[in-house]
Amino acid sequence: MNQLPLGIGLREGVTLDNFYFGENREARHTLIQRKQPFIYLWGPQGSGKSHLLQALGHQAATRGETSAYLPLVDAAKLSPDYLLGLEQLSLVCIDDIDRIAQQPQWEEALFHLYNRIRAGHTRLALTASSSPATLPIALPDLRSRLSWGLVLRLTPLDDEGKLTILQQRARARGMELPPEVARYLLQRISRDMTSLSEWLEKLDERSLAAQRKLTIPFVRELLLPDKEKPA
């Protein structure tokens, strides 16, 4: 993969094709077309922002383009210098820019990255939990740049959408996940897609190890705290 070696890899199998867009049809059209130089995706946790950024990275790789994916969830452990030179790439994806709001060095570094990218042919995609107008950015010039290009709000999935995703991902793993089992899981664990995907992976491993089908009794047993599980 032609990806800048930041030490931050992309998750395998994260693509635009296996993202359930639901009501976010405009986002699907925009991301597949790849015509917008600046894209700002915003929405609450669980709306799929990180998935979409990583999918864009995989999309760029399949086209032989260079890209970088930078999650700012741990921005305190990173340096604003990570943004230097990114304008040389085809695509730059920066996740969770909320985390650098009110941090002067980071805000200034992102502001200058915008300016350098505008002068070239790089595409920039950012995510945040709120719109550019309500993001608590202190640097006025950066705030104005966040509205450059296309700003898209992502609507979180309802339970039926999450059920669809779980079954799609189960089929991709060669698993049979009956609808009643998927609904049982949705009712008993955290409903964000990261947690659901982690549980799906765990179910896959446990069902293969036990040579058992995914049934409600089997899933119920796995959800029990260890101390309550039968000996």
Mean pLDDT figure: 84
Strand content: 5-15%
Along the chain, the helix and strand elements come as HEHEEHEHEHHHH
In whole angstroms, the N-to-C terminal distance is 47 Å
Unreliable sequence segments = 1-7, 226-231
User: Order of strands across the biggest sheet?
Assistant: 2-3-4-1-5
Provide a count of the helices. 8
The chain-level structural class is alpha/beta
The coarse silhouette is elongated
Task: Tell me the helix content.
Answer: 40-55%
Give a quick account of the main beta sheet: strands, pairing sense, barrel closure: 5 strands, parallel
Counted beta strands: 5
Q: Report the C-alpha radius of gyration, rounded.
A: 20 Å
Short description:
The chain has 231 residues and is an alpha/beta fold.
Write structural notes for this entry.
This protein has 231 residues and is α/β, with parallel strands linked by helices. 40% of the residues lie in helices and 11% in strands. A 5-stranded parallel β-sheet has the order 2-3-4-1-5, covered by helices on one side. The longest helix has 18 residues, at 193-210. It contains 8 helices and 5 strands; from the N terminus they run H-E-H-E-E-H-E-H-E-H-H-H-H. It is elongated. It has helices at residues 25-33, 49-62, 104-118, 140-146, 159-172, 179-186, 193-210, 216-223, and strands spanning 38-42, 67-71, 91-95, 123-128, 150-153.
List the topology elements.
Blueprint: H1 25-33, E1 38-42, H2 49-62, E2 67-71, E3 91-95, H3 104-118, E4 123-128, H4 140-146, E5 150-153, H5 159-172, H6 179-186, H7 193-210, H8 216-223
Parallel strand pairs: 1-4, 1-5, 2-3, 3-4
Helix pairs in contact: 5-6, 5-7
